[in-house]
Amino acid sequence: MRDILVVREVAYPREMVWAALTEGGQLAAWLMPNDFQPKVGHRFTFTTKPAPGFDGVVRCEVLELRPPERVAFSWKGGPLDTVVSFDLAETAAGTRITLCHAGFAGLSNLIPRVVLGFGWKSLLGRKLVHHLGARDHGA
Amino acid sequence: MSRVSPDQDPFRAIADPNRRRMLDHMLSGERTVGELAGILGIAQPSVSQHMAVLRLAGLVDERHEGRRTFYAVRGAELQGVADWIAKYEAFWEDRLDALEAHLARQKQ
């Protein structure tokens, strides 16, 4: 199973980053309009513009909440039934944010096989393999 | 611009794990409904129903030979799906830029 992993260091204290991740109003300011509440089991949605295969609503449930280190929620929208998590670590300069978007298993296993099977040599193919290989749990 | 009905939506078609398994097996060559039913351990009528969804979504082609029908994957249609997932990483990079800008505003 392969996940998307994005690591970002920011020059702000961890408590401040935590608030930006776990207060609905702040989440709306940088991610999407939502009715998030910092409570495990709380179901909420993010809303955005619809696209082909996607009604514009991401359905979520808070799965983990460990202030000020980790928050995880399910992320279901379009063909996706995935999990998004943020881990926050204090660094000398501020905070390291590790975003993991996991659960592409079924799709990501299929697509590289399509790319290989049809001999696609497009930039997309190379980029996709690179992107899906960002993290490999070896499952 | 024409609207895609839910029935023809390739994203919806691949959202089902059994249909993904069927596609997976058809990638290595043409298959009949009966063969797929045997491989996957699913009843033939279910495989037929799933195949109808894949066909409506334009993900598979059919070819008749005598009384048998062979199905194969149309790869180009899946590229749109691959493209969509590849965009998710760009989405998160972009959102984390927005988070940083938001934090800068909070600091002021």
Structural commentary:
The complex is a heterodimer of chains A (139) and B (108). Chain A has helices at residues 14-22, 24-30, 105-117, 123-132, and strands at 2-10, 43-47, 57-66, 70-77, 80-91, 94-102, 135-136. Chain A is α+β, with helices and mostly antiparallel strands and 139 residues long. Chain A has a 7-stranded antiparallel sheet with strand order 2-3-4-5-6-1-7. In chain A, α1 (14-22) packs across α2. Chain A is globular, with a radius of gyration of 17 Å. The N and C termini of chain A lie close together (5 Å). Mean pLDDT of chain A is 78; it is low at 113-139. The mean pLDDT of chain B is 84. In chain B, a hairpin with a 2-residue loop joins β1 (60-65) and β2. A two-stranded antiparallel ribbon of chain B has the order 1-2. With 108 residues, chain B is mostly helical. In chain B, α3 (33-40) packs across α4. Chain B contains 5 helices and 2 strands. Chain B is elongated and about 75 Å long. The A-B interface holds A 4, 6, 8, 10, 12, 16-17, 20, 26, 29-31, 52-54, 78-79, 81, 97, 99, 101, 104, 106-111, 113-115, 117-118, 120, 124-125, 127-128, 131-132, 134 and B 4, 9-12, 14-15, 17, 20, 23-24, 27-28, 73, 75, 78-79, 81-86, 88-89, 92-93, 95-96, 98-103, 106-107.
* Model regions low in confidence, pLDDT < 50 over at least 5 residues of chain A: 113-139
How many helices of chain B? The count is 5
Widest β-sheet, arrangement of strands of chain A: 2-3-4-5-6-1-7
Q: Which quaternary structure do these chains form?
A: heterodimer
Secondary structure: number of strands of chain A: 7
Report the β-strand fraction of chain B as a percent range.
Answer: 5-15%
Order of helices and strands of chain B: HHHHEEH
C-alpha-based Rg of chain A, rounded: 17 Å
Question: What kind of sheet is the major sheet of chain A?
Answer: 7 strands, antiparallel
